[in-house]
Amino acid sequence: MKRYKMIFVLIAIFCFAQTNAQTNFEPESKKKPNILLILTDDMGYADLSVNGSKQVATPSIDRIADAGVTFTQAYVTGPVCGPSRCGLLSGMYQNRFGAEHNWNDFPEHYKEEYVGIDPTLNIMSDYIKGNGYSTAMIGKWHVGETKDMMPNARGFDYSFWMGGHHSYFPKADKNKLHRNDGPVTEIKVPYLTDWFTEEAIDWINKNHETNPWFVYLAYNTPHTPLQAKEEDLAKYAHIKDKKRQTYLAMQDCLNQSIGRIFETLESTGQLDNTIIIFTNDNGGPCGANASINAPYRGEKSTYLEGGVRVPLFISWPGKIKPGSKYEVPVTLMDLTPTLLAAIESTEEPETYEIERTYPDGVFDGVNLFPFIYGNKPEKARPHQTLYWRTAFRGKAIRDGDWKLIVTPHDLPMLYNLAEDVQEMNNLTLTMPEKARELKSKLANWEASLESSPRFFTKNHWLKEKYKQYEKDYILIQPER
């Protein structure tokens, strides 16, 4: 009998210990994930080894794709830096709040408070911070520089940032860098890509033991000016084109930086509970920085595939199948509702449906998890139709596999992307009814926009931009 009593006591102690453990410790799968969103600037679609580059190896960037899902048809909402970032961070078409043009060169009579994301709207960081996250913005901001548009007013606890164009070798007395709301007067790391990386690593190391964290790491590389470190340039001495050599060296440095961030996440035991996203703000500007968008024709500021299609990889260990591909069109404005599904849902994110309407507005983006998990009907798409517009410069629509581009200087361009992804064969004259149908649909979308553009860029570069539709582009990967 004593023996049985001892067994009962042991069972009771074990059950109490199990109950107590479940009460005091949250299961690993229920912890809110950390989020690292990496955005590059003016990178060519082809210039990653995971996308087939033979000239530059990018194993650390490729690692994100290998560990998660690759979106083979990912689009930006605008073909230039500022509008694209507005769509990414707001989760909606930036046209809804009048931010259609870039703002590095707009007429003097426009007011600075119009230039950026409307401060009355919540953005990705506001929502994430509201879910108990520590938040940091590091890198290129470029969505408004009035006090109520700066990062620390937009849901970021910490920021180390620049507005737009910047030298990669900043000087203490000549730079446009900000730490939170104040100017930077001391140079701690001589090369800007490395400095942004060190800022991100330092912040993660200081904050990872408290709340879950969100880092928006928006590198300005490989945007011009083309400036690289000597040790990186030396690796590409065999490239005769000086522009291309410098560009590849900058890509190499970027890859090294992401490798250091991986080392930090691994050494601190955070990698398995971190969502990592890698993407780019628009197509590479081939003439300006020698980037390559192969196999697509076009470049930054055009609505050809080379101007609006970008790499997009998302990894989340234990949640997203490594090495998977999603081959239906998505857009970067989907990232805000997708991340909210990951951190707000009491259900598994792959089944959670976030409402289109949110406290202060409407998301045009959608939660991508049900699609990448295959929990939608076979023919369902995140977006049947996608739209683009830069007022007085051009506009476009993709409906299914059909795409129509309209510019002020030429006939509309109609393409069937399922058969002609390089957009070589304009079908407007042979299929006028299809062109008319898409143009009408595009006009209906434009009519639904309640805000007119709040500012415009100057016209001096207009002719140059129109020539981009007629240029010859590199459509295959160059040899080493």
UniProtKB/TrEMBL annotation:
The keyword ATP-binding does not apply. Residues 33-342 form the Sulfatase N-terminal domain. Gene3D superfamilies: 3.30.1120.10, Alkaline Phosphatase, subunit A. InterPro entries: Alkaline_phosphatase_core_sf, Sulfatase, Sulfatase_CS, Sulfatase_N. It comes from the Bacteria. Residues 1-21 form the signal peptide. Keywords: Calcium, Hydrolase, Metal-binding, Signal. GO terms for molecular function: arylsulfatase activity; metal ion binding. PROSITE patterns: SULFATASE_2 (PS00149). The keyword Calcium applies. Pfam families: Sulfatase. Belongs to the sulfatase family. This is Arylsulfatase A.
